[in-house]
């Protein structure tokens, strides 16, 4: 397998992982909208803030994935930042004993970080 094809494979894997993360964040936002309608005790402004953050974050991760898929460089730093934030969320989920959410999010964040940082490292060595 030649070096360009391996580079393409890593980029497509990173793009797929970012698309999955973006979808998860958008699904979380949709779930928060459902909870806003079904629960009696709700604060509208914080709920709107969370939903807007989910929409912007999910679409941002999807755009980062598109950047990786197209071979562009604009998705690198936001992808790393989003996954470092996700690891912070995982820490608090572990402290709250919400393991069924913390473990999958942690696996996804670590694998995406690994792919993104591996790609950045290889591209920096090639330049």
TrEMBL record:
Keywords: Membrane, Transmembrane, Transmembrane helix. This is Unannotated protein. The chain crosses the membrane at residues 12-38, 44-62, 98-120. It comes from freshwater metagenome.
């Amino acid at each position: 397998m030649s070096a360009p094809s391996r580079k393409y494979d890593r980029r497509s894997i990173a793009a797929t992982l970012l698309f999955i993360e973006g979808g998860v964040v958008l699904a979380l936002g949709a779930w928060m909208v459902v909870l806003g309608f079904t629960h009696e005790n709700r604060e509208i402004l914080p709920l709107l803030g969370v939903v807007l953050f989910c929409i912007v974050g999910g679409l941002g991760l999807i755009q980062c994935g598109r950047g990786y898929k197209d071979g562009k460089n604009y998705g690198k730093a936001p992808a790393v930042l989003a996954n470092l934030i996700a690891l912070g969320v995982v820490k608090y989920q572990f402290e709250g004993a919400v393991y069924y959410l913390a473990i999958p999010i942690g696996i996804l964040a670590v694998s995406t970080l690994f792919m993104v940082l591996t790609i950045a490292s290889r591209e920096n060595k090639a330049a």
